[in-house]
Structure formats: structure tokens, C-alpha cells
Write a structure and sequence with these properties.
about 230 residues, single chain, about 20% strand, 7-stranded mixed beta sheet, alpha/beta
Amino acid sequence: MKSFRPSATSYALERPLLRLAVFDLDGTLTAVPSSWRYLHEHLGLWEQALVHRRWFQVGRIDAAEWARLDAALWAGIKVGTIKELLRRAPYRAGARDLLAFLRQRGVRTAIISSGLCIHSELVAEELGIDRVWAIKLVACDGRLTGEVMVNVTEGSKEEPMRAARTEFGALPQECLAMGDGPADAGLFAQAGLSVAVCPLSERVRAAANVVIEDGDLRPVIELVQAHFRLL
């Protein structure tokens, strides 16, 4: 784990109260790097989805169009089938412990993810997370329509982070943010303590106060206790 680099607030005479903890989902709270790829692989659609990924990588489509094309591959699939697959996605070690610790101390929590809302909502229910911002799959009569509501993309996490802070009345220095991808640097910029979990790039590694290399989230409890005041 990278040594903690204190932010300016850490030098204050009184540590800030932790009011809000914000998490990316894929690769952060779960050990699955992408819920999109996870579903494509389990549904036998990865080769088709890989075409869309390559189009995005070469700039032929943007992130929102990528999500729409991928979601279209799932048209007609039962929502129950999707939920059952996502329930099998493993959590990071210590994810339950960390969320239980935060809940017990009255810290409000949110997921901000460019993954799937259906997955984020399952995790939120299991771990007691207050709010979710993610990409919503449209369903009708229990089956996916292939349509999608792109509420969050890899380049747009700053806006829901501001919305979460407003909703829960949290200043930046009163926030914990955790993520693994370059887009999560936008979360880190609005947090007093930022933690990169098995970071996917040097950009996110450099943007974080702390880097967790092994994916075990339990050390974050000690970091939170050292940096913040708690109820």
C-alpha cells in the first residue's frame, strides 16, 4: 500500500468529520473489472462486444454510443438472468467490513459508476449504500429492451460527485473517494482522502492519496480513523 500523502486538510488542528464516502463499483468494491464484459462473457456475447470496444478505442464512437451498442446485444434477455449473474460477481476482500464500519458511524455512502445500475443497486442493497449513480438498462415485462439511459460515463463522474456532496451536505474535505480507473480522478479531486484500489493507470495512481495494491479494503478502516473524525 502506498504511503498516505495528507491533503491540506490533514494539517488542520481538527480533523474533518467524515460525512460521505463515494465508491466506484467495478474493480473497486467488486473484483470484476467491468460488469459489462462480465455479462458479455457469461452470455456468450464477448466477441460481438469486442467490436464495439475497438470502435471506442480508435475514436469511432464515444462512450455513450458504446454503452448503447453494448446494451442492444442484451435485448430480450430476462432481467432475472442478469441479476442472477451479477449476484455471483465477487466483492473485494474487506468490502463488507468497510461498509459496515462506515454505516455504524453514520457516514453516508454512494456508488458512482459507469457500470450498470442494476448491479449497483444489488450491491447497494446488500451493503447498505445510500445512493447510486450508474447506467440504467431499460426493461419491459421483465426483459431488457436493449435500450439504455447513460447517466454516467468514464468522463462524467465529477457531476454526480458534486450532486452527492450537495445531497448529503458534505464539503470536499469531508469526503472519502475510492476508485480504480482514470475517470475516478474526478472523484478524488473532490475528496479529502482518496484511495486507488489496484489502479488501472499511472494517472489514477498519482491522483490518489493512498494506493491499495492487493485489493483488500480492510486497511481503509484504519486510514479513515487516522484522517477523519467519526461520530
